[in-house]
Amino acid sequence: MLKEGRRRASCALLTLLFLCLYIFSPVASAINADAIKALQTPFYDPNDSISCGSAAVGSVASQKNIDYAGRPILNQGMLKALAENQPVYVQAADAAGIPWQALAALHYREHSLIADSPNSDGAYQIVGGKYPVGNLTKEQFLAQSIDAANFIKQKEPDLTTSPAAATIKNAFALYNGLPALYKSQAVALGFKDSQGYEGSPYVMNIADARRDNSAVGANPNTWLQYRSASITAPATNDQYGAFMVYASLAGLAADGGACVASTCSNGPSNASQGLSQVRQNVVCLTLQELQKWDVHSGKLTPGSGYLTYSQDRHEDWCADFASWIYKQAGYPFGDGNAWGIPGVANIQALGEKDKNFHWHPVGTYGPQPGDLAIHGDNHGDYHVNLVTGVNGVHLTLIGGNQGGSSGFETSRVTTYTSSDLTDGGDITGFVSPE
User: Do 318 and 384 meet the contact criterion of CB atoms below 8 Å apart?
Assistant: First the structure.
């Protein structure tokens, strides 16, 4: 762990409260045996039609407890320790509102899932923690776990119980520290400046052959990690990145559970053919959100469902929806909190000026799934939605703030087929990623 001014994130009152909950709650003694058993059988089914974890061309590892090269991520001893520790992870993570798998991944990186304190920084190596050294009681281990859960939540407030891949990766990076070296390694690997976590061995070690110093032809001098606050060395071959462990436990593809469009319900059969991972993510996530707005599902409803996309702003939200999709896909419109663009015209301007997006006036470009379709008239741009399918001149479009009878409070996410490329419709152009 990098020692970058960490402070202990404990709260005595909360710790005492959840110690009591731990002692008296039946959850404390319940181990999810089925989940742990499932992790002990490495598998990869490229025809899996349920999960969005199929390994597309260029993607990294597949699902469950295997890495990109087919090796187990957690050995049998670690799986046993995980089963023993899981009730504590669940208690502490639930208290902070984060996934228990995230806490387990931190414990793996910091102390190999061992429930004791190797030094005063504790089982999760929170610098300045002043914890007792040596064996821990269950109550002491829970207290340290609560501290660690609160600490990572403090570092990444957007971390929730169902985080986007980019959010959980960033949370791990911030927990450990994100120096300039890791950011430069991410850029050298082809990632954006804002995706520095991709260059952190703490987060992404052994994610693929490029980040595996044991791979044939690997150059260890291009994949470095900090051994102390000032000393770097080639990343080790014996410990996976925190996100690799998290993805394994959460049943995700190791590239972040990246969704392949053809594995999502209602996805066009050819949607994923030849597309970049970013486009696949965008299409699949858009289809998933569409399902949540189905009148029969009841998961999201007009009047409130859109507030997740708009960051609780009450406004026309088609651009908010597009911004949110791209953020969840790991390719945000802007860095940090600047990921949201509420104005349609500003999304077009992004394509005109930003190196990561490109603007194409209608008639000059063949749109692809994952593109943003800009709609306008002589008075300017007024709507944006996402292309999820292309069949000749016909486009399948999904967008937010559509179909309302009386403004944005009654609208929802809907889909329709357009032939605007030939019928003189209102699409003025497309913004494409990459």
Answer: yes
Query: If you count DSSP H runs as helices and E runs as strands, how many of each does the chain have, helices first?
Result: 14, 10
Q: Is 116 left (phi over 0), alpha (psi -120 to 50) or beta?
A: beta
What's the Cα-to-Cα distance from 359 to each of 138, 299, 318, 347, rounded to whole Å? Answer: 57, 34, 18, 9
282 in Cβ contact with 433 (< 8 Å): yes
Say what the pTM is: 0.53
Give the confidence band of 20 by pLDDT, cuts at 50, 70, 90.
very low
Residue 93 and residue 99 in contact, taking contact as beta carbons nearer than 8 Å: yes
Domain with CATH 3.90.1720 in the chain: 271-433
Query: Residues 120-176: pLDDT tens digits?
Result: 999 999 998 899 999 999 999 999 999 999 999 999 998 988 888 889 999 999 999
- What distance in Å separates the CA atoms of residue 94 and residue 425, rounded to the nearest whole number? 49
How is domain 271-433 classified at the architecture level of CATH? Alpha-Beta Complex (3.90)
Contacts of 372 (CB under 8 A, 6+ apart): 322, 347, 351, 384, 385, 386, 387, 430, 431, 432
Both structure tokens of 147: 């501290």
